[in-house]
Amino acid sequence: MEKSDNREAIAKLAGQQKLQRHEWRALLTQLDKEEQEQLRRQAVATATSKFGQGIYIRGLIEISSYCRNNCYYCGLRCSNNNAHRYRLTREEILDTCRRGAEIGFNTFVLQGGEDPGQSDEWIAETVRAIHDLYPDKAITLSVGERSDEAYRTFRRAGATRYLLRHETRNDAHYSLLHPANMSGSNRRKCLDTLKREGYQTGAGMMIGSPGQTTEQIIDDLEYLDELRPEMIGIGPFIPATGTPFANEPAGSVTTTINIISLLRLRHPDALIPATTALATLHPEGRKLAIQAGANVVMPNLTPSTVRSKYAIYNNKASTGCESAEEIEKLEKELNSIGYHINYSRGDHKPTE
């Protein structure tokens, strides 16, 4: 495509119109610096028109580093004998929520591996305990693939949001990243169930994962068009020790940032986080994502005694905010690029 065609495709996307595959392909592979800047400016304009200058904060609580799965890219995979394992007790989780509530968090994100030691019933009871203590706060779960009944139970207990990255829409690529007992079709079935059960649902993918092609990224973008998730998590692949992909190169920060902008234009109401993975690969990763259209940060409230054990990839950046002083630092960081913390829950629905 010519430069003028790329600019037209960006304008078309800003009107929330679907793109043809050749247009996606050009925007993913042929943008020069001037066009990237145009894309970024347009994405920021779209984000600020919807959300103003406020950036939502979600308190991340990593509840367990045990996982029954053996995903080839994840440091928590069950066959990684060098992984350091822990699981928080319900009392520890409630205490973490209490500390988070005291400094202003209105959303808690409980994230963990698919830990057999934290059953569906245990998770539901934990969600119910948080909801009873903090009925006005949003509770997000990110605990993997579960049964339809489990998702219904979590919802009745008080969970309102669920994060489950689809990872890749291409089934052959999914099989490259996961063992044979896992399937992309089941992952998508889970996402369909979450939408049906009324969750604000989050999907997303890694950029630069082993074997990934531009055509597969286009498949992902078209799948997100179909799913219309309320939340979209995009981060670069980072290798993890103790996995088959330990020596693979990390994904591109620039490509990830560009895709955040593309997704902001296509899904203007979506909650798009500035991920820890970006902050891990680039010291200004969080700022770069916000300046590309991201509107959520997820500071880590996990107790510092175990935080380093949740090693899903190497050298994970520490973005803790478990004190008022650290929240003030985050506020100053956002102020330095013209933004501020929005403490509200941020319940947004996608544009039809």
Task: Give a short summary of the structure.
With 352 residues, the protein is an alpha/beta fold. The protein contains 13 helices and 9 strands. Strand 4, helix 6 and strand 5 form a beta-alpha-beta unit.
Give me some keywords for this one:
single chain; 352 residues; alpha/beta; six-stranded parallel β-sheet; three-stranded parallel β-sheet; 13 helices; globular
Write the layout of secondary structure elements.
Elements lengths: L2 H12 L6 H9 L3 H19 L2 E4 L1 E6 L25 H13 L4 E6 L7 H14 L4 E5 L5 H10 L3 E3 L7 H7 L6 H13 L3 E8 L6 H14 L3 E6 L16 H14 L9 H6 L3 H6 L5 E2 L26 H12 L4 E3 L10
Parallel strand pairs: 1-8, 1-9, 2-3, 3-4, 4-5, 5-6, 6-7
Helix pairs in contact: 1-2, 1-3, 3-10, 5-6
Written account of the structure:
With 352 residues, the protein is an alpha/beta fold. Helix content is 42%, strand content 12%. It contains 13 helices and nine strands. It has helices spanning 3-14, 21-29, 33-51, 90-102, 120-133, 148-157, 171-177, 184-196, 214-227, 253-266, 276-281, 285-290, 324-335; strands at residues 54-57, 59-64, 107-112, 138-142, 161-163, 200-207, 231-236, 296-297, 340-342. A six-stranded parallel sheet has the order 2-3-4-5-6-7. A three-stranded parallel sheet has the order 8-1-9. Strand 2, helix 4 and strand 3 (107-112) form a beta-alpha-beta unit. The relative contact order is 0.16. The mean pLDDT is 95.
Radius of gyration (CA) equals 19 Å
Mean pLDDT rating: 95
Number of strands: 9
Q: Strand content of the residues, in percent?
A: 5-15%
- Number of helices in the DSSP assignment: 13
Helix content: 40-55%
Structural class: alpha/beta
Question: Strand-and-helix sequence, N→C?
Answer: HHHEEHEHEHEHHEHEHHHEHE
Query: What order do the strands of the largest sheet run in, or round the barrel if closed?
Result: 2-3-4-5-6-7
Low-confidence stretches: none
Envelope shape: globular
Largest sheet: 6 strands, parallel
| Gap between N and C termini | 29 Å
